[in-house]
Amino acid sequence: MAAVEGAGNVHGLLGESALLEVTDLRTHFEIPAGVVKAVDGVSFALDRGRTLGVVGESGSGKTVLSPTIMRLTLGDNLHTEGSVMFKGSDVLQLGLDVYRLGPKPNR
After folding, report:
1. Are 54 and 61 in contact (CB under 8 A)?
2. pLDDT (mean) for 40-48
3. Confidence grade of residue 75 (pLDDT, cut at 50, 70, 90)
């Protein structure tokens, strides 16, 4: 899966920061036969109110891309790199407790 042209620009079309900015995202799975590079170096920026379509050949990583962005790909054999900035926060750096439903535990 290739990077979107112009995705290195941190500003959206309207000159403001993008709502979602994915930079050099990589999702690799270690399996007994070796490493599967499901997503390898994807970058794009998406402005508020815009739509992005992801197209590609079979096996190019489309199915793994969205769950990786939403932090739904988990496992001991998983290696994720890059950044997923949403509203100024890097989703990949947030603790998993952010995603729990229901009341937050007292700390």
Report:
1. no
2. 94
3. confident
Q: Torsion angle of alpha carbons 15, 17, 21, 24, nearest 10°? A: 70
3 in Cβ contact with 56 (< 8 Å): no
> The pTM is what?
0.74
The CA distance from 7 to 45, in Å, is 6
Residue 8 belongs to some domain of the structure? no
Tokens representing residue 9 in the block: 């620009």
The conformation of residue 51, written as its DSSP 8-state character, comes to -
Q: What is the dihedral of CA 33, 37, 38, 43, to 10 degrees?
A: 170
CB 27 within 8 A of CB 1: no
Residue 66 within a domain: yes
